[in-house]
Amino acid sequence: MSIIVQGAITIARKSGKRGDFNVGDLSTEIGEFEVKDALIEEFDPGRYTGRFVIDWIQPDSFTYRGRVFVKNRAKLAEILIDEGERGEPQPQMPPEPDPIEAERAAAPQAPAQPDAANAAGPESQPAFADVAPAGLAIGRTGQAASPEDPDLMLFGAELNAFVVEREAVKLDPTVDRQQFRAQRDRLKAIGYRFNPKTQEWLCGDANDIPF
């Protein structure tokens, strides 16, 4: 069961071999917790106050230079920001491992399976298989995407339509985390800025963004 707590989260940006990622220190009336969710990947480094919906709390650990570090980790379902102050917090030791690496290391490895689709014939191919004319790929929507349009491949047809028109964009943090970071970085590169209150990306005057 989820709980809602009032508190403040201090978000720091780290660098890893898979790109930049965020780690948060959440301070609430029920305790202090570490946050590594994709939900905070879009935020600029800084301190934000508001309400936080916590799904679960459990110990989390990692090893650095032969030592084991244990922290209480909170899994957030939602963040409702009241106020914020951007600014890079002081670096903390030890450096945090990239959450992508930790998630992939913890994921169970599926046993290798024979290629049943090829063995059974073309009738068993899924509807979203990569079957298309030369140079094109077919996604789950059945819409062809050209490899010459990297934004279309990155965002998908629906989100890319908003990006092309420079309209507000809301990313889905439940997609593959590597792709989520790439979407975030691309929006920054083309002039978007993240609004912590609405958790949307806006393209335009930076003065329109709070904090």
Assign the CATH topology of the largest domain.
OB fold (Dihydrolipoamide Acetyltransferase, E2P)
- How many β-strand stretches? 9
Report low-confidence residues grouped into runs of 5 or more: 116-145
Q: Based on helices, strands and strand pairing, what is the structural class? A: alpha+beta
Give the number of helices. 4
Order of helices and strands: EEEEEHHEEHHEE
Shape: globular
N- and C-termini, Cα separation: 32 Å
- Rounded Rg: 20 Å
Largest sheet: 5 strands, antiparallel
Strand order of the largest sheet: 3-2-1-4-5
Into which percent range does the helicity of residues fall?
A: 10-25%
Q: Kindly give the count of domains.
A: 2
Beta-strand content estimate: 35-45%
| CATH class division of the largest domain | Mainly Beta
What's the mean pLDDT score?
81
CATH architecture of the largest domain: Beta Barrel
